[in-house]
Amino acid sequence: MQKNKRLIIKLMLPIVTLVMLSCPALAAPVELSLADSIALALKNNRNIAIANSEKENAYWAVKQAEAGKGFTLNLTHTDERYNTPPSYLTNYKYVWTTKFDNELAASFPVYSGGKLESQIDQAKLNLKVSDLSLDATKQQLRQQVTSAYFNLLQYRNELQVNQETVDNYTAHLKNVQAQYQAGTVAKSDVLASKVSLADAQDNLIKAQNNCDLAVATLNNLIGLPLDSESTPKESLRYEKYSLTLAECNQYALAHRPEIAQYQAQIASAQDDIKIAESGYRPSVDLFATEDWYDKDLPGADNNNWSIGLTASFNVFDSGLTGSKLKQAQANLKKVQEQSSQESESILLEVRQYYLSLREAEKRIETNQVAVEQAQDNFRIAEVRYRAGVGTNLDVLDAVLSLSQAKINDIQALYDYNTSKAQLDTAMGIAVE
């Protein structure tokens, strides 16, 4: 018998091992604070990676522009073989000639009419715009993650409220059924209680689905697998906001990245005007060449060198330079108008989110009172029904009112916290 048991164990062991290896490992729950979530998003989010690539591209564009004002050196080697037609110089025969040439040429732009300097300045301004764009992308991502984090907290709290509602209806139904068995209440009370319980269970299923979707949304933003079991460490809470609307506006105008971007774009448009105006000015270049000919290797007996300055001046171009200048001037006006428009839009955003924050703040105060009153009303309705002086409808309505009061309180806290996150972004508060 003992031998049979050992044989069975030996036969079953590979099967159990195979089953264990084939089953997917369950991911351990990940507890995240809001700061943890933002840090993960900044590390993993693809928009940040794209913005970093654009910044690097702008950096090398500066190096390219600066190289245009520097010293250049080119080495050229030419191998040539050609046929000379018959003539009296070649004794009326075809003559094949092989020629080698090596040239070393150096050049340096002495004066470009301000064109090269303006192009370098433009490239540096574009680098600044890219850097500011990265800051704006980080701020937008922080807002998205914060909203998703609080959204998960909202749905998790609503799930708890819906579960409490189901529990309240379940406990009440047991009480109604007991009284019905005792003959003190009508069957309609039992049926009405079952209907209310079914509705609450339906809402509980929806709340669970909303919670699961909120987890997946947060995971997507912070770069975790969608099926990761992310659990927030924090809770929806109220912290009084101390800044006034005027202070928020002043901060936004001084720190919003988009405003600084437009200031850089205005300076870049002014550089476009300088570049166009350089067409009316001369350009001067210094050059030097050293040439070795007839032989494939350089030598002292076959060299030829030269050094000089070349100057060019556009005498007439059929209005080309003038048209470029007018285009640049028109573009400057457009960017200036866009900058003013952006500032006005930012101030509107700040006002919108500030007022939304203050509205939610007032709702928090009233909703907390409403929750306390709804809880008292529910307890009273239950006691009255047990005593036979209240109706079943009173209890059902009290449960529903309590649930709605708690949902309203959660919604107000969610609106307050998300409005604050949106206000931080509208003000241009930097991401730590």
From TrEMBL:
Alphabetized InterPro entries for the sequence: CyaE, OMP_efflux, TolC-like
Signal peptide stretch: 1-27
Keyword Signal part of the UniProt annotation: yes
Keywords: Cell outer membrane, Coiled coil, Membrane, Signal, Transmembrane, Transmembrane beta strand, Transport
Molecular function per GO: efflux transmembrane transporter activity; porin activity
Coiled-coil portions: 325-377
A Pfam family hit: OEP
Gene3D superfamilies noted in UniProt: Outer membrane efflux proteins (OEP)
One GO cellular component, as annotated: cell outer membrane
Subcellular location: Cell outer membrane
Top-level taxon: Bacteria
Family the entry assigns: Belongs to the outer membrane factor (OMF) (TC 1.B.17) family.
PANTHER family: OUTER MEMBRANE PROTEIN TOLC (PTHR30026:SF20)
Stated name of the protein: Outer membrane efflux protein
